[in-house]
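Quick start: read one record
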Amino acid sequence: MGGKHLADLQKFGPLILASASPRRQELLSLYDIPFVIEPSDANEDAEGTGLSQVKTLAHRKCMDVASRHPNRYILAADTLVCVNNEVMGKPKDHADAARMLRSLSGQAHQVYTGLCLHCPDGRILLDAAATTVHFLTLSDAMIDAYVATKEPMDKAGAYAIQGKAGIFVSRIEGSPSNVIGLPLGLLTQFFEQVGIELFSPDHKTCTE
């Protein structure tokens, strides 16, 4: 790929990940690209379909951080879960988490992640990925036990597919990383479009 070398990327400073999510940080670390973390303070209220909301919110988060760092690469993402026309973000409390899980029980649902990349030259790449996740039928005891672990509390749809809730999933259609919060296939396409090389044998990634 005849793109920018990492040294060229570094002249703009490391990529800024506009998210405090440890899962997104772990996934982004799969690329040998230096990055720092600066969560967005943007308002996260949006209307419309789940797909339109995640694109709106990813763009809003990205532009919020870009307003402070206009000459940097900035990556933002937003993930929502949708089932039976309900758009699910993070649960408000344990009761809300249990309600969400009861809605997902025995159903297929969609996970959408919007992705926005701001470039130093002013280009903005914006798109979204969709994955269908099929849940087993969950008993009240299973739901209560899972909510008691507190794992659901900061997750869209009140579950983490890479965590204990992985045992609830019968199958998925689409990108697994999208369900975790960062669709790697789409992100790779973004990096290729702007000419960022993906691998370097001796480069550190996240710099707190």
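The CA atoms of residues 94 and 147 lie 6 Å apart.
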